[in-house]
Backbone:
């Protein structure tokens, strides 16, 4: 035993296999035990070598990455980090891979002289180390909902209630089991801070929009938060909320100029900004992910009279963010992933008067 993280690199390009291997082995705590050029070689290597982590591309001969990851999770549960190029077509396939159980996503470098190759190297190593900490017993097969034909979405309405959701590693998979369960008449707006590369956020929003009764889109600067819409914060910047008086709040996007290692968008900054705007009518939710982003945000929401939830350890792919929030004592409810949408619906049927919960009858809401 070397104590190193043993990685299998899968890519149909010999050049890319060599480059990714070089990146991984630049870290003394990681080693590449084998490379594979297609899905068939990958599955054989996983069965034989039982690597700690697999890096996997989407486009491959014989067996494509999506089919490969589905088979891995079903037969040889192993943490997978997607290392892939981006195109509008493949964006949806990459999001599907994350729904199937991939725990990380890294943009493939453009070549040996890519301007951001050092950033990609650091992100790749970070995702591999994070994936190594995932509890593989959580890789239970999850039914993937076939995207339904886009029907008529609800007409957005002004609302003074909001849900703020934080998610990171394993987040797209978790969101796919929460957002599509929300009804079209949910009497609150929803804002999501998901840590992922900026170029894939639009694909995530499009995927969820196809699966959901609510409209799901990437948030735009100045856009009002309304009932009937789920706004996903764009990557590479922070997403804040400004007051619009009785009309609730609106999105304010703040570009991040300096190089920061903190995950973006920050769930803490999102929740802290909306807490005084919505007061008792805000609900903060922290889903799967590494680190502690969201803890201070939940604290702010509680301080202003709102309610807070965290995903239960039993369903978390990465029990980091929820654990830290629970440890900090800022969580009102700990809820398994499959029950979170139900709890959101119940919470949206409450108003706060003199600090006492009063449930509004469903018939009145309709």
Residues:
């Amino acid at each position: 035993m070397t104590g190193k993280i043993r990685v299998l690199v899968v890519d149909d390009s010999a050049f890319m296999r060599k480059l990714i291997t070089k990146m991984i082995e630049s870290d003394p705590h990681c080693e590449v035990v084998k490379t594979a050029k297609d899905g068939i070689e990958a599955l054989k290597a996983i069965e034989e070598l039982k690597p700690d982590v697999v890096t996997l591309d989407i486009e491959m001969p014989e067996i494509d990455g999506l089919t490969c990851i589905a088979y891995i999770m079903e037969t040889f549960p192993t943490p997978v980090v997607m290392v892939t190029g981006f195109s509008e077509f493949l964006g949806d396939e990459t999001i599907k891979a994350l729904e199937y159980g991939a725990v990380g996503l890294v943009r493939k470098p453009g070549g040996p002289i890519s301007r951001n190759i050092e950033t990609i190297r650091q992100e790749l190593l970070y995702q591999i180390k994070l994936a190594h900490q995932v509890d593989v017993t959580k890789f239970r097969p999850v039914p993937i909902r076939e995207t339904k034909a886009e029907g008529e979405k609800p007409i957005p309405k002004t609302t003074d209630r909001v849900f703020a959701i934080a998610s990171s590693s394993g987040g797209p998979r978790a969101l796919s089991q929460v957002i599509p369960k929300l009804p079209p008449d949910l009497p609150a707006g929803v804002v999501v801070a998901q840590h992922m590369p900026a170029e894939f956020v639009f694909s995530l929003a499009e995927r969820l929009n196809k699966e959901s009764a609510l409209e799901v889109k990437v948030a735009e600067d100045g856009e009002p938060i309304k009932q009937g819409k789920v706004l996903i914060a764009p990557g590479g910047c922070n997403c804040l909320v400004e007051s619009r008086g009785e009309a609730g709040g609106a999105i304010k996007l703040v570009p991040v100029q300096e190089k920061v290692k903190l995950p973006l968008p920050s769930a803490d900054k999102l929740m802290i900004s909306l807490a005084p705007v919505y007061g008792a009518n805000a609900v903060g939710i922290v889903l799967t992910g590494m680190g502690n982003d969201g803890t201070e945000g939940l604290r702010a929401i509680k301080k202003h009279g709102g309610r807070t939830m965290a995903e239960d350890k039993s369903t978390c792919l990465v029990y980091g963010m929820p654990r830290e929030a629970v440890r900090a004592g800022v969580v009102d409810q700990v809820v398994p992933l499959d029950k979170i949408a139900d709890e959101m619906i119940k919470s949206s049927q409450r108003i706060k008067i003199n600090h006492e919960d009063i449930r509004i009858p469903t018939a009145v809401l309709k």
